[in-house]
Amino acid sequence: MTMTAETAATPRPRVVGDREVEILQAAIDVLRDVGYDRLTFDAVAAAARASKATLYRRWPHKRDLIIDCVSLFMDAPAEQEPNTGCLRDDLLAQACAAGGLDDDVVVGAWGALLPVIHRDPLLAEGLRTRFVEPKTAAGRAVLRSAQARGEIGADADLDTLVTILPALLIHEAMLTGQRPRAERIAQLVDSVVLPACAATLTCRPGAGA
Amino acid sequence: MTMTAETAATPRPRVVGDREVEILQAAIDVLRDVGYDRLTFDAVAAAARASKATLYRRWPHKRDLIIDCVSLFMDAPAEQEPNTGCLRDDLLAQACAAGGLDDDVVVGAWGALLPVIHRDPLLAEGLRTRFVEPKTAAGRAVLRSAQARGEIGADADLDTLVTILPALLIHEAMLTGQRPRAERIAQLVDSVVLPACAATLTCRPGAGA
What we know:
Two copies of one chain form a homodimer.
Chain A: H1 5-8, H2 18-34, H3 41-48, H4 52-58, H5 62-73, H6 87-96, H7 103-117, H8 121-149, H9 158-176, H10 182-199
Helix pairs in contact in A: 2-3, 2-5, 2-7, 5-8, 6-8, 6-10, 8-9, 9-10
InterPro entries (chains A, B): Homeodomain-like_sf, HTH-type_TetR-like_transc_reg, HTH_TetR, Tet_transcr_reg_TetR-rel_C_sf, TetR_C
GO molecular function (chains A, B): DNA-binding transcription factor activity; transcription cis-regulatory region binding
DNA-binding region (chains A, B): 40-59
C-alpha cells in the first residue's frame, strides 16, 4: 500500500512530505518483519531506497523513527471527533475509522512494539504522548458528551470505560491476527461497552453518601 | 525469584523436575531481557548453568522451550476450578490466582511473545493449545455454572464474555507494566464484566424468534 499526496494531505498531527511517508511506510514494513530489536537503519534505508544519512538527519535514533511511524500511520482523522448525538453511533464511528492500513501492518507493528515498550522508557514516553493519549482523549470526549446527554452516570469512571473497547479490539487482533470488522465491533459495543455505560446510571449497592 | 521443590510440586499440567524448572525460569529471564528473536540456547544455557546439549536433548527448538515455559509458569492451579456458587466470587478467585511470578516476569514474557506469535505458526499453535485454550476453558466453565444458576442468559455469547476480563487485564498490564491488583480486578469485574453478564438476562431489541 502506498499513500498518495491526497491522503497524506488530510489533517494530521504533523505535516510530512511524500518522501517521508514512503520512508515511514518502509520502516513499518521492516518493523513488522523483524521486530524492533533487529530493526536497523540499514534495513530501513534499503527498503525505502534512501541513504542512511537521510534517515539519520531526520531521526537521530530508531525510536524517533518508529514513534513517527506510529503517530503518522495509526491515527485516522475520522475517529477524532464523531458527534452523532448518540453514544453507540459515536463509538462505532470512532472504532471503525480504520486509517487505511492493512491488518497485518497494524497488528504486526503493534505486536512488534508491545514487548519493547518497557525496555525503553523514551520509546514508551513517545508512544504515550503521540499515540495513546490522543486516542484516549478522543475516546473520553465521546464519553463526556454521552455523560452530558445522560447516557452515562455523572460519577462514572470514564478512565475505565474508555479502555474497554480498545482493550477488547487489541486482544482480539492479537489472538486472531486480524482487526475485528465493523459487525464484530458493533457486537462488542452492544454486549460489553453499552451495558457497562448503562450500569453507571443505576444505583449501586454501597454507593452514595 | 526461585521456585522451591515445594511450589514446583503443586499440581500442574506436566510434572517436571527441579532442574527443568530452573532451566525454564532462566529461559523466561532471557526471553524477557532480549525478546524471542534474540533468545539463543547459548544464552539460556549460560543463565541456567546448563550445557547446550542438555537443552537440545529436551527441547529441539527454542519454541518448544518457550511453550514449556509459558504453560509451566503462567498457569496457577487455583484458577482452574473456583466454585463459590457466585459468579462474582468465581471471577475474582480465577483472576486473582497469580501463580507466584513477579509482574515484570509475566508482563515481560507475554510482551516478548505477542509480536512473534504471528510470525511462527508452530509457536502460535503451541501457545494456543497449552495456554490460551486451557485458560479459556476454565473461564467458560465459570460462566456456564453462572448460566445454570440464572446469572447469565441462556443464549448469551459466552465466547465474548469469557474474553472481557483477560483482555482488560492484559491491556492494563501492557500499558502500566504491572498486573492489576485484586482491588482493581474487582473494579473491572463490577463495572464491566458483571454488567455485560447481566445484560444477557434482559430482552434485547430485535432479539427473539
